[in-house]
Amino acid sequence: MSTHRGPTIVGRAISAILLTVLPGAVAVTTVAAPGPDSAPAALGTSAVTASQQAPQIRNTAFRAPAAASSTPCAATAKACVNLSTRQAWLTDGAGHVTYGPVAAHGGSSHAPTPVGTFGVIYKDQHHYSKEFDAPMPYSVFFYPGDALHADNPSSASNGCIHLALSSAQRFFNGLAPGDQVQVIG
After folding, report:
1. What pLDDT was estimated at residue 70?
2. What is the rounded CA–CA span in Å between residue 126 and residue 147?
3. Using CA atoms, how far apart are residues 174 and 2, in angstroms rounded to an integer?
4. What's the gap between Cα 10 and its chain centre?
5. CA 143 from centroid of its chain's CA atoms
6. Computed over its alpha carbons, how large is the radius of gyration of the chain?
7. Which of 19, 35, 71, 151 is most exposed by smallest CB count within 10 Å?
8. Taking the CA of residue 104 as centre, how many other CA atoms within 13 Å lie in the half-sphere pointing to its CB?
9. CA separation for the pair 93, 73 (Å, rounded)
10. What is the tens place of the pLDDT at every residue in 80-119?
11. CATH architecture of the domain formed by 79-184
12. Are 28 and 11 a contacting pair, CB within 8 Å?
């Protein structure tokens, strides 16, 4: 017998779904959320045997939806940056890492990188900052004036996120306008 806990459903009615797989059958149990003075209670169990539903059960793999990311960011983030660990990742937008972690360095204390969830605004492979009189190759702008771009990942920026050249190229090629970028502190 194997048991798999499905995702917790937020709300008052159901707090968990328990799938129990037995030889030739699958049982589904729903559990009510505890009230202020009560413990969780089973709402009901239903079982389906292989002979009853053979076409639906046979050769079907159960895969729970991605509830969490393998990065510290939301599963929906296509790029994840952790400022405190100075790391960045690319993902498929479903929580699976496609590249990283790589070295990444955000802004200095006087010019911090914005924290939050943003959409890619635009990309510029050969961007040059007039404000700082500096090249910013492979720029992926996610906030007005701030981008992921190639520069020394060991040095602080003026709000951007510095990546090594090869990493900046991967982020530039892996992200499109509208893709979600999440930056955490």
Report:
1. 86
2. 13
3. 38
4. 19
5. 19
6. 23
7. 35
8. 29
9. 11
10. 999 999 999 999 999 999 999 999 999 999 999 999 999 9
11. Beta Barrel (2.40)
12. no
Spans of all domains in the chain: 2-57, 79-184
Rounded CA separation 181/119 (Å): 6
DSSP codes of every residue in the chain: -EEEE-PPPPSSS-SEEEEEEETTEEEEEEEEPP-TT---EEEEEEEEETTTSHHHHTT--------S-SSSS-TT-SEEEETTTTEEEEE-SSS-EEEEEEEEE-BBTTBPPP-EEEE--EEEEEEEETTTTEEEEEEEEEETTEEEEES-TTS-BSSSEEE-HHHHHHHHHH--TT-EEEEE-
Cβ atoms of 57 and 26 within 8 Å: the answer is yes
Residue 173 sits at the vertex; the CA angle it makes with 171 and 178, to the nearest 5 degrees, is 80
Q: Residue 101, preceding bond cis, omega within 30 degrees?
A: yes
Can you read off the two tokens belonging to residue 127?
A: 């961007």
CA distance 142 to 123: 9
User: Encoding tokens for residue 61?
Assistant: 């793999």
Hey, what are 13's tokens? Answer: 């009615």
Rounded distance between C-alpha atoms, residue 31 and residue 19, angstroms: 11
Tokens at 182, concatenated: 């999440």
